């Protein structure tokens, strides 16, 4: 289903969204036959529960969706999206909606529930469409959903069809559709242009490593998004075990998320100057692979001792961040599927982030709640800087000890952003099991919260 609402002129079925506490009073206003029917079905208005009310001809007069209780709703999000797949094919218009609900959030959830990855097989998908509720910005919600669909499609595509070549093609296509400038630096040209870490990580891959660079907008504050584009990660010579390698097509989830966000920003025509940088590589095993104990020199002159070739994401990001910082943008954001430690800390559903700005953290925390896009601030804990300093070089890409892995990775990246205002998201990029509006598979994290926060963060 496209990321769009049904036209307002469509023939619609009324949809009543009812809380458990309001069910009795709502049923009392129904015709006796419909009230008796609803009681006979056992409908209790539990969260995600659905019932259909018949008309006198045996058709559907209306649909009812349970909105549960406040306590149950607090355990999830996109509650009407839980009901949408249970409804028969048709076009629905919300006729009753509880005061406790957020119409815009629930409408977006319905759009997101319509996503289905169909590149390799027609898998059906959501049959029920929704007319946009009154008083919501339907065009904005459709744009946000379309950006999320792009992110999901990119992550869900396996590395055989989403290597550096395909990621470049997707980025170039996005630039062309929005009249943005695009360049790509590939292969040994990375060495000529002083991107040694990107080259080192990707030089053993079957497709040349590269740095993708998209620019859009001529006025307003400067926002640079940097996304980790490791299209597949074997771990390199520190080879991952099979259980850890199985989901590594998603290791370009940071790139996918910033590209989806960029699509949204450009479609909405936000008044800013946008730059997107994606170091696109495969971390492969071959005679050209970089090695443990190698010492590499980054773009900004810092030397890095390689103590684990599976800590490659921070390396490719380092060169891209150093380039971004040279222009001193008003905001620099990195998004990356960077550490397993972040998953241990907050699980797969929350995007931890790092920033030195208390103001930005306050704004982002508020918009995350508004947008049902959970994030959690983590500390740039400066005393841990010694953990990433190996002695033999300026930095260690994989400090031992097993402690604070997400924090030390963030501190590593901070060494490359100079004094530029910076936020780093250590995302997972994957939905482990089906949930309302989030089918199992690739998923964007943090992008909606950041999008909503940008006007206040950048004062636009």
Automatic annotation (TrEMBL):
**Which CDD domains does this entry report, sorted A to Z?**
Peptidase_M17
Presence of the UniProt keyword Hydrolase in the record: yes
Keyword list (alphabetical) reads: Aminopeptidase, Hydrolase, Manganese, Protease
GO biological process annotation, one example: proteolysis
Q: Which GO terms describe its cellular component?
A: cytoplasm
Per UniProt, residues of the Cytosol aminopeptidase domain are 308-315
Family of the protein in this entry: Belongs to the peptidase M17 family.
PANTHER family in alphabetical order: LEUCINE AMINOPEPTIDASE-RELATED, PEPTIDASE B
Spell out the protein name for this chain.
Leucyl aminopeptidase
Organism whose genome encodes this protein? Rhodovulum imhoffii
